[in-house]
Specification:
Number of strands: 10
Domain Methanogenesis regulatory protein FilR1 middle: 73-202
InterPro entries: FilR1_middle_dom
Largest sheet: 8 strands, mixed
CATH superfamily of the largest domain: Endonuclease Chain A
CATH architecture of the largest domain: 2-Layer Sandwich
Protein name: Methanogenesis regulatory protein FilR1 middle domain-containing protein
Organism: Halalkalicoccus paucihalophilus
Strand order of the largest sheet: 3-9-8-7-4-5-6-10
Shape: globular
Pfam families: FilR1_middle (PF08350)
Order of helices and strands: EEHHHEHEHEHHEEEEHEH
């Protein structure tokens, strides 16, 4: 290590880290922490379908992982339900599937006056309009509901309850909501909001989508 310049001899058999050595130790500690965070959140990465999703380590550190297991199959949904009880003015969400449970609680928030914005893809729109047409029509007619359609398939789920709580979920290959990062820290919320806006920038109001020739 002395030859590499990582340490320097101060006296007989006593060595001190050089600046290079301190930087290397620091980077190693950071690398070790990164490995630990990725390992702890392994269930989420196993379920992510979108290879383009990159989650910074700071985001992993500032959030909690909720996972659906054999003994607690509704862990992720329960987090959503609990968050829906918060007193907030807005709910912004994105769903890659039709979730009756989430729809029920979002509808309740809508009726209570919460401003709700939802992003879905064309497949989910078709399923909602076909299987839940009455709920769909009530939502469309509400002044405090905004439905946006993303032209391409959505593989992740997002929910932001005001600025108090956020969720980023992976639905897996079978569409089940099996793992999600949840939290209320600024670092996590800002990242989730950035992800949401990336999809939102490419989405259009449902009325515009329905009027497109290809719709």
């Amino acid at each position: 290590m002395e030859e590499a310049g990582w340490v320097e001899e101060q006296s007989t058999r006593e060595f001190e880290l050089t600046l290079t050595g301190e930087l290397l130790i620091s980077h190693y500690d950071t690398f070790e922490e990164n490995i630990e965070q990725v390992t702890e959140k392994k269930e989420l990465f196993d379920q992510l379908q979108d290879d383009d999703v990159s989650i910074p380590v700071e985001v992993l550190e500032s959030s909690t992982l909720a996972t659906a297991t054999e003994y607690d199959p509704h862990a992720v949904l329960n987090d959503f339900i609990e968050a829906s009880m918060l007193e907030v003015d807005t709910l912004r969400g994105m769903l890659p599937i039709v979730s009756p449970v989430m729809n029920t609680h979002a509808a309740r928030m809508l009726e209570e006056g919460t401003e709700v914005e939802l992003i879905i893809d064309p497949t989910v729109l078709k399923n909602i309009a076909t299987k839940y047409n009455d709920d769909y029509m009530r939502g469309i007619e509400a002044d405090n509901f905004r439905l946006l359609i993303h032209p391409e398939s959505i593989d992740v789920g997002i929910a932001m309850f005001g600025d108090l709580h956020a969720m980023f979920g992976a639905h897996g290959s079978e569409g089940h909501l099996s793992a999600a990062l949840t939290g209320d820290t600024i670092e996590f919320f800002d990242w989730v909001e950035t992800m949401y806006n990336q999809y939102r920038d490419n989405a259009v109001p449902v009325s515009d989508f329905m009027n497109e020739p290809s719709a």
